[in-house]
Design goal:
By secondary structure, the protein is mostly helical. The chain is elongated, with a radius of gyration of 15 Å.
């Protein structure tokens, strides 16, 4: 039962980052402070979903085929989230 719940959570986390697309069609979402905050929140969620799926696969030993697919997709999200946060933070540091 625990394996199914963790798999469902990891699978649901695949679709949440795509909800930024309808939000970005609003004019208020394109203004500077709102856009930066929204992108940062989505990037942090993508990093969290990647780490959660890795922990589910390695520590909880949930190793079915669906979690392997989730691991690949959320791993890509993890890399994209780190890149997005890096592009936002590095210019402010330097």
């Amino acid at each position: 039962m625990k394996n199914k719940i963790l798999t469902i959570i990891s699978f649901a986390m695949i679709f949440i980052p795509w909800t930024i697309l309808p939000l970005r069609e609003n004019s208020w979402a394109l203004e500077s402070p709102t856009a930066e905050i929204m992108i940062a929140c989505y990037a942090v969620f993508m990093i969290f979903s990647g780490v959660f799926t890795i922990i589910t696969y390695v520590k909880a030993k949930v190793q079915n085929n669906l979690i392997k697919i989730c691991l690949i997709i959320n791993g890509v999200y993890l890399a994209g989230g780190i890149a997005a946060l890096g592009m936002m933070i590095l210019p402010k540091i330097m």
